[in-house]
Amino acid sequence: MNLFNIIDEIQKVDPEINDRFNPRRAAIKNITSFGSKVAVAALPFALGTMFKKAYGAATTPVVDVLNFALTLEHLEAGFYNKGLSIGGFVPAGGIDAKFVSQIAADENKHVAFLKTVITQLGGTPVAPPTVDYTGGNNKGNGPFKDVFTNYTTFLTVGAAFEDTGVRAYKGQAPNLLGNQVVLTAALGIHAVEGRHASALRYLINSHKVGTTATPAIKPYIVSSASKGNDTGAGAADGNYAGEENTTQGGVNLSSLASIGVVTASFDEPLSKDEVLKLLVGSFIVTP
Amino acid sequence: METNINPTTGGANMARRSFLRYAGAGAAAVAVFGAASCGKDYIKNPDGTYIDIGAGDVGILNYAYALEQLEAAFYLQVVATPYSGISIAETAYLTDIKDHEVLHRDFFKTALGSAAIPALEVDFSSINFSDRTAVLAAAKTFEDTGVKAYDGAGYLIQSADYLTIAGKIVSVEARHAALIANLISPGSFANPDQVDENGINRSATIAEVLAAVNPLLKKKVYAANFNYPIA
Predict the structure, then answer these.
(1) Residue A285 pLDDT level (bands cut at 50, 70, 90)
(2) Residue of A192, A196, A214, A255 to mutate, interface with B, max B Cβ within 10 Å
């Protein structure tokens, strides 16, 4: 969720940011020059350079924004890291350890990615936030209170994280319209969220019915006409609300295929406010 | 002159943009003369030996339509002639993916209307559809290429609505890509061949993608306005 939150939050804390840039032709030229030639891997440094050119030196609002994005990445990374740290919780024998470890590794890379940007600015990356992965707002008694004792709950919450992450990135993409470097990187993280969602659903299914029988849950969100959520976890219904949409680009597709196919073929966006009101927001106690 | 074509809108409304979008407009300004020749429809060449996707958003949508046509044709063949030893789960998954890709294809055809490129004729003679390894390897290539193609062309889209629609599709392609990877080798859903060292999916240019898929097409697809001129 990092890049989109950065952009949203910067506009909130500094609505005049365009004005800061406009007179600075040198900064603009500098930004242009990395458009197509610099690899995406260099993005943290490029971002850091942009902020420095805009503000002269790192300022509290910008670091705060980046740290907010980092908070969300910590939330995701911490979830998988904690699951993996509990001896015997993630089964070692089958495919589980490999799947969860890969996802944890990717989330940890996203954390590192943001830390690099913040450090480049001379800021101090925040420590992981206080979290309540039961979704209980620090009461430890939310709808997922057995999240670290019941492995099935753990996978369900993980899938909800990833499916929601896909929706969150998608909802912010138009804010990056036309920006080759940042939009491309953001779409790339968005796609990795999609890969994770697919993998966790595959893993959940492997526990339900195995990997060769008729799948009980699919790697894509197969909604009914009235309900987006196909995970069976009612507490996560809000995270999937709207996935039952059957109209794309003004074209109602329900005459072309079944509801399940129409809904599974398109993932739907969520706004940032919607995301924070949902499951993800309820996990953060003190950002 | 053709090397920097980037038909992104220019900087006339910079004040209203977020600064990061503003940064992107710089790249567009470099190539704004390249966008001046924006047509609407695909290019109908006189002797019909090739297809060019055209320019602007219609060009990008036709690009997506071409890829979805190819994917749909592939999975229709996979489902029609299942490989030996196919499991119940694999039949279900490949049928689902076929249904999704056919719907993506039909959606673009409907949305593009008269601006749509014609139906493509495929040549899958290089794929052994009776062999599981060959079919899944081809499927992985199709899905990974699809994700990289959408991600790589996203910044060229000028309409927020179209960008959102492309986003709605690319994450489903990513779900497919991870699924196929897991069918080939469980746990390979985000391997370094597709995801870089920052945990970011790799992307590809239109020229790279079309050059890769043209061997599978009887009538080749080009993108003169996006750095892939008629050979």
Answers:
(1) low
(2) A192
Q: What is the 3-state secondary structure (H, E, C) of chain A?
A: CHHHHHHHHHHHHCCCHHHHHCCCHHHHHHHHHCCCCCCHHHHHHHHHHHHHHHHCCCCHHHHHHHHHHHHHHHHHHHHHHHHHHCCCCCCCCCCHHHHHHHHHHHHHHHHHHHHHHHHHCCCCCCCCCEECCCCCCCCCCCCCCCCCCCHHHHHHHHHHHHHHHHHHHHHHHHHHCCCHHHHHHHHHHHHHHHHHHHHHHHHHHHHHCCCCCCCCCCCCCCCCCCCCCCCCCHHHHHHHCCCCCCEECCEEHHHCCCHHHHHHCCCCCCCHHHHHHCHHHHHEEEC
Q: Which of A113, A176, A198 sits opposite B198 (nearest CB)?
A: A113
Question: Measured between alpha carbons, how far is A218 from B92 in angstroms, rounded to an integer?
Answer: 10
Query: Model confidence over B124-140: pLDDT tens digits?
Result: 999 999 999 999 999 99
pTM of the full structure: 0.80
**What is the pLDDT at residue A279?**
57
Chain-chain contact of B161 with A249 (C-beta, under 8 angstroms): yes
Query: Above 70 in pLDDT, residue A42?
Result: no
Side-chain half-sphere CA neighbours of A159 within 13 A: 29
Which sequence spans correspond to the domains of chain A? 47-221+268-279
Residue-wise pLDDT for A159-175, tens only, equals: 988 998 888 778 877 87
Every domain of chain B and the residues it spans? 48-222
- Residue A264 contacts B, CB cutoff 8 Å: yes
The answer to whether domain A47-221+268-279 has CATH 3.30.1330.10 is no
* pLDDT of B187 higher than 50: yes
Mind telling me how many Å the CA of A103 is from chain B's nearest CA?
8
Chain B residues touching A269 at Cβ < 8 A: 164, 167-168
Q: Do B197 and A261 touch (CB under 8 A)?
A: no
Q: Is there a contact between A78 and A128 (Cβ–Cβ < 8 Å)? A: yes
Topology of B48-222 in CATH?
Ferritin (1.20.1260)
Please report the pLDDT score of residue B10 as a whole number.
30
Residues of chain A contacting residue B22, judged by C-beta atoms under 8 Å apart: 18, 21, 28
A window 146-175, beta carbon within 8 A of B = 166, 169-170, 173-175
